[in-house]
Amino acid sequence: MKPLTEKHLAILRRHMVEIVEMHLDLASDEIGKSVLSPDLRRALMEVPRHLFVPQPLMAVAYQDTPLPIGFEKTISQPFIGALMIDLLDLEPGQRVLEIGTGLGYQAAILAEMGAEVFSVEVVEEFAETAESQFLALGYDIEVRVGDGSRGWADHGPYDAILVTAAASEVPPDLVEQLAPQGRIVLPLGGADVQKLSVVEKRPNGSFQTRAIIPARFTQLEVAG
Hints:
Number of helices: 7
CATH superfamily: Vaccinia Virus protein VP39
Mean pLDDT: 93
Shape: globular
CATH architecture: 3-Layer(aba) Sandwich
Structural class: alpha/beta
Largest sheet: 7 strands, mixed
Helix content: 25-40%
Strand content: 25-35%
Strand order of the largest sheet: 5-4-3-6-7-8-9
CATH topology: Rossmann fold
CATH class: Alpha Beta
Number of strands: 9
Low-confidence stretches: none
Distance between the termini: 47 Å
Radius of gyration: 16 Å
């Protein structure tokens, strides 16, 4: 069989976006919207997801399913990943903190949308791989290895925070580093089942949480 070409991969990427849009429409009652933001849709069409998965999985990178990336971690299902970013309600130029870089796909989407991105990853090998890929593709994204639950205070406050691992409660350091009226999107719950949730910070520093749909993520790790 011939190898996949860039033309083939572009077709698969377009199909992935269409599936994401279908899932969004089907879940619109729970989510509160039925279409992707234009900036996010464009980014999904532009970022080569197949370069952010292990090489043996490149051919299935655009299927709407999570994929293993090593260290018992996965890259999120495209629909869930896109939904989490859409729920941040971003505007170009805003400062975003990502917790859980993985191999870098979500951070690349955020950067493609015009965000200023800072990402924290607990697995050093992931951080190194992601940084190399960002450099190769021209994305200006800062990455550090560390405990994601503590955020990255040096670059705060952030307009939005994306957490790609589950926590039983919203980490207090992340709330502290979030700008007033900013949003955190994360899965809240135990090891088996969580609710994808939006946390909005009020001007007085308190916050309110809105559960969206069920989700299943690995737990947020705390570095030793």
